[in-house]
Amino acid sequence: MNTTDTITISSIDAITLDAPDPEAAARFYADAFGLGSEVRVRAADAATSGFRGYTVSLIVAQPADVRALFDSAVAAGATVLKPVEKSLWGVGCVIQAPDGAIWKIATSAKKDSGPATRTIQQIVLLLGADDVAASKRFYVDRGLAVGKSFGSYVDFAMPGSRIGLGLYKRRALAKDAGVAPEGSGSHAIRIVGGASFTDPDGFAWAASE
């Protein structure tokens, strides 16, 4: 782990996902979500199995958008982990992409305000932490401010970034995604923004190009 005090981060420019077939993965994300350069793929260079320790959320404005993105993801080949359903927090679903990444699509709205637009308001990367307090200190020491923090959940304030960052206890994150918490090998993700380092839970960051 790089603990150089001068390393600071303030935003995430992109996330890069490892995939056995990067061309097929790129087609999936284009067809399912219409994602551009903020989500990239590369050929997998290390083995991974089970839960990779993170989820990516797509935040949208209304339930119709959740359903539209869910439908396009399933049509493109995603596996359903949790169907579209209402909760105390709004409406959401969880799917797993063919490359293995887990995606949550959610809105805090409980009623539609118009036709579906499939517009993604924000992308949120949620990292599973073994010790949330220690990982929180690590990121605060590198310049991030805490926006919300309660229990085993931390949401960092990143006003200049469309990609948000949060921490959640690994086991709780797996439960929320609807999968077993066990996993081994590479996280199969690289976070692009700020500088190159590895956090306490093994998530690798790379400097923006």
TrEMBL record:
A Pfam family: Glyoxalase_6
Q: Where is the Glyoxalase-like domain?
A: 15-101
Write down the Gene3D superfamilies for this protein, in alphabetical order: 2,3-Dihydroxybiphenyl 1,2-Dioxygenase, domain 1
Q: Which domain of life is it from?
A: Bacteria
Q: Which InterPro entries match?
A: Glyas_Bleomycin-R_OHBP_Dase (IPR029068), Glyoxalase_6 (IPR041581)
Where does the record locate the signal sequence feature?
A: none
Q: Which SUPFAM superfamilies match?
A: Glyoxalase/Bleomycin resistance protein/Dihydroxybiphenyl dioxygenase (SSF54593)
The protein in question is named: VOC family protein
Organism of origin: Agromyces aurantiacus
